[in-house]
Amino acid sequence: MKVIVIGTGIMGTGIVAGLIAQRIPAVLLGRDPGRCAGAVRNARQIAAGLVADAKADGPPVECGLIESWNAWTGAAIVIENLAEDLALKQTLFRDLDTRVPADIPIGSNSSSYGISKIAAGLATRRRMFGAHYFMPAEIVPLVEVVLGADSDPVLGGRVCELFAAMNKKPVLVKKDIAGFLANRMQHALMREALSLIDAGIASPEDVDLAVRCSFGFRFAAAGPILQKEISGWDTTLRAGTEIYPTLSNTATVPACLVNNVAQGKIGMKSGVGFLKWTPETINAAKAEYERKLKAAFTLL
User: pLDDT tens digits for 257-268?
Assistant: First the structure.
């Protein structure tokens, strides 16, 4: 199996690192040879931190240019990771539609745009899917395989099998809706979390602590459905009857987030969000985040 990854940014590099760690041959395509080679070097360094034998003598990773690459033979799937620009992705997919043999599935790692929009009107759109990873792609197991309006469901199942062979945890999302599966649930939680902060009911730090040390703590062991199968849906019904009418159902983003972004308070990138950051605390938090993700990964 060989996987062709398009895009030399953070996500493309992370996907290649995961492939190296699993000893799966990969091709990384970009628009600049130097940047592509640098991304491969970074991917090998990341992979070396995942598994002890993912050294420089690991599986081959070829570099190539997006516009001129034509060595598709042996490719199991093509995964696009360009910037979140719909027109840019549509242009690339029009090109891939004619250049990539029709038996090779093509996925888009877009988190913003559904594959139905990206592949609209293309002759081979039946073999095109959402292939949505989560950052950091080399650690987080989930990949959402999203069926577009014209995607082949049977082929979608086979794409899930491909990701399972890469040691990922694929889920098949049967309808191309905004946010797909995981981000819809994540944003439902975020809406309530921000509404609680907005109302002065809890601090941002306590919101995080409440999630991490209660139901979030359990999620590495069981998802929300299995957890309630264990605890009993009768209790969930009684609690939901009381809680659901009081939950935020706003169709707009809570004011605390709108105001922060308007003031340039966007998190680590600006040195302040809901929390304040220095270069030292950023490095420490990121290192601790990665350490905990790796520990959770071993459980899964």
Answer: 999 999 999 999
